Amino acid sequence: MQPLEVVDRPRPPVGSAAALPARAGIGLKPQHFREVLATRPELGFFEVHAENYMVDGGPMHHYLERIRAQHPLSLHGVGLSLGAEAAPDEAHLDRLADLIARYEPASFSEHLAWSTHGELYLGDLLPVAYDGPTLARVCRHVDRVQERLGLRLLLENPSTYVEFERSTMSEAAFLREVLRRTGCGLLLDVTNAHVSCTNHGRDVQAYLRELPLDAVGEVHLAGYAHDADAAGDPLLIDDHGSAVADIVWGLYAGVVERLGTVPTLIERDHDVPALPALLAEAARAEALMALRAGPRRCGVVGGGA
């Protein structure tokens, strides 16, 4: 393994991206717009995918503007392709900057993944190699995003199904080093941790212990699908198409015991149920925080990993 270059940068300006309530939220879906406005559910926040709002007007903005006036907002990106060879697209960054100025989200996050190659967009979040060159490239890209947007990005741990033989460090060590070099925060997707560790035969509790949980700014919980690989071994697919599994709730309870209360999102992107079903899952997250969390400590989260 190559020695890691020691690079310490000052933490980027946080701006508005430090104020997500330490409560549960849900992903905001168009089929729920009118009901949300009519009922004003008691939630910590809503989250939307940034790329769905990269137009000047239309019905999506019509509703989001009104919902944003009532609730805090988290903005979640899926298109920056931070792990790609090329730097983040400047036109895409400009559109993101416009969205952030328009809605003043309390958080902005993206994935440790890549989805572009040259002019080709692959429509998926693909894994990166955990080695020195990739580390340097991801750090450059995170630095550029934070510089352009003027806020602290939260970087999400991925769900993966294959690994690179050339990797020279663990995923958790890679994430820890990206956070140290760039000053970005961590979006801890507990479901992704379970999915990836199951797929690669690793201990998820050991993985969580290795992560820099003191940098967590938001947690994601979602459902997954069961499959099998060519050898017949279990293969989990992060599809956001079902309720959060009991095993993930158990992992989340352990995270909350370590962190205290933390902004927690229920993700559902496929087979989206009626709004009350999502609100019930959010209520379960808040109940777990009330039952299992120690007192909230300063900043984004307290306690070290």
Summarize the structure.
With 305 residues, the protein is α/β, with parallel strands linked by helices. It is built from 9 helices and 12 strands.
Q: Helix- and strand-based class?
A: alpha/beta
Shape: globular
Total count of helical runs of at least 4 residues: 9
- Spell out the CATH superfamily: Divalent-metal-dependent TIM barrel enzymes
What brief labels describe this structure?
305 residues; alpha/beta; TIM Barrel; 8-stranded parallel beta barrel; two-stranded antiparallel sheet; globular; disordered N terminus; disordered C terminus
Write a structural description:
This protein is α/β, with parallel strands linked by helices. The protein has one domain (24-292): Divalent-metal-dependent TIM barrel enzymes (TIM Barrel, Alpha-Beta Barrel). Helices cover 36% and strands 18% of the residues. It has helices at residues 33-39, 59-68, 90-103, 132-149, 171-182, 190-200, 204-210, 246-259, 275-292, and strands spanning 24-27, 45-49, 73-76, 107-111, 114-117, 120-126, 154-156, 185-189, 216-221, 225-228, 234-237, 264-266. The chain has an eight-stranded parallel beta barrel. It has a two-stranded antiparallel ribbon with strand order 5-6. The protein has a two-stranded antiparallel sheet with strand order 10-11. The longest helix has 18 residues, at 132-149. The two termini are 24 Å apart.
